[in-house]
């Protein structure tokens, strides 16, 4: 780790312009009718979960809880050439043509608003900027705090609130323009990174490690046996886990699967698709803020050991505003040098407090004898 350099957090207000609202009029058609049917069956009012408030909550929390060494920068917009390294020309044509419109993109409720395409270009370009800052020696590590997220986006399909696969665009840029031959992508979002997996499925130059909640949890992929194909066989490593999984299980997966896999692969760059929906407040799992700090420390150690600390994070999911903000803070303060606390099973501190409180309640009174 390069202690003298800053940790750069990239935040660009242009990504806030992506703001689908279901009360608006969407482009009519078969998909629009299908989504309407799906939403009509719900017994509650549904709002678009991936909203601008996610990023503003993070920024406000970081501004009010400053971390030494952390500096902010704005991002950049990805070019068509950069996006075309992972998405087909026909897909890009389709998405670009939807600029300025409200449209559903998939029946899983992925949608765009009039400025979403430009926001998505900035999200992908900011992921590139984060990687460039690390590889050019400007930052010890970096975090692209962006939206819309990216890891569900496939070469020809928008999915899971994702338009462009930000982390894949950053990885291929590092390979094409910045001299990285081997890239390790660690995805700790609670949802499997199906898009990233598909993009690098047969590519031995990218090791994709994904710890996620097992199917049928969305998107339903990421089985243990999904390990890549062709020359990429063995370069996809999936760790599907049950609901309620907490800190100890995920840390164990990192220590006993990711660490030896990284040692065998010897990456030139480590990227993290960082989603915070494993947090107990987000209902997908039972991970704590300190758990995310511990995961950060492990990937930081991997980067230090294999690629001179070259490490960049790209935001994915996380939909509870408090846990999302605190999770990002946990990552950044760990990158800045604050060691995580030892892992403690949920409830143990409270039990110990209760033990101390009640410890004299049931002692037998010897009656003064």
Automatic annotation (TrEMBL):
GO terms for cellular component: cytoplasm. GO terms for molecular function: histone deacetylase activity. GO terms for biological process: epigenetic regulation of gene expression. Residues 49-335 form the Histone deacetylase domain. It holds the Pfam family Hist_deacetyl. SUPFAM superfamilies: Arginase/deacetylase (SSF52768). Belongs to the histone deacetylase family. This is Histone deacetylase.
């Amino acid at each position: 780790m390069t202690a003298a350099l800053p940790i750069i957090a990239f935040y660009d207000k242009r990504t806030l312009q992506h703001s689908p609202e279901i009360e608006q009029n969407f482009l009519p058609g078969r998909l629009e009718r299908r989504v309407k049917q799906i939403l009509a069956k719900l017994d509650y009012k549904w709002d678009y979960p991936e909203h601008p408030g996610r990023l503003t909550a993070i920024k406000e929390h970081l501004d009010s809880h400053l971390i030494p060494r952390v500096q902010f920068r704005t991002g950049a917009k990805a070019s068509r050439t950069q996006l075309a390294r992972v998405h087909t020309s026909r897909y890009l044509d389709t998405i670009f043509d939807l600029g300025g419109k409200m449209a559903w993109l998939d029946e899983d409720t992925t949608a765009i608003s009039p400025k979403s395409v430009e926001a998505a270009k900035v999200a992908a370009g900011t992921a590139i900027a984060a990687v460039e800052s690390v590889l050019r020696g400007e930052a010890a590590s970096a975090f692209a705090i962006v939206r819309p997220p990216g890891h569900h986006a496939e070469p020809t399909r928008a999915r899971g609130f994702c338009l462009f696969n930000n982390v894949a665009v950053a990885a291929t840029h590092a390979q094409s323009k910045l001299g990285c031959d081997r890239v390790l992508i660690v995805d700790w979002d609670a949802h499997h990174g199906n898009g990233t997996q598909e993009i690098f499925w047969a590519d031995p130059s990218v090791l994709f490690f994904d710890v996620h909640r097992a199917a049928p949890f969305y998107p339903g992929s990421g089985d243990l046996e999904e390990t890549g194909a062709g020359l990429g066989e063995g370069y996809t490593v999936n760790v599907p886990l049950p609901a309620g999984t907490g800190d100890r299980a995920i840390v164990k997966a990192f220590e006993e699967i990711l660490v030896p896999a990284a040692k065998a692969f010897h990456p030139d760059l480590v990227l993290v698709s960082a989603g915070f929906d494993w947090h107990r407040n987000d209902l997908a799992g039972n991970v704590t803020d300190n758990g995310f700090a511990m995961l950060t420390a492990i990937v930081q150690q991997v980067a230090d050991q294999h690629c001179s600390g070259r490490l960049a994070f790209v935001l994915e999911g996380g939909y509870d505003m408090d846990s999302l903000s605190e999770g990002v803070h946990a990552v950044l303060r760990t990158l800045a040098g604050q060691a995580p606390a030892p892992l403690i099973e949920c409830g143990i501190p409270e039990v110990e407090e209760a033990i101390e409180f009640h410890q004299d309640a049931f002692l037998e009174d010897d009656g003064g004898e």
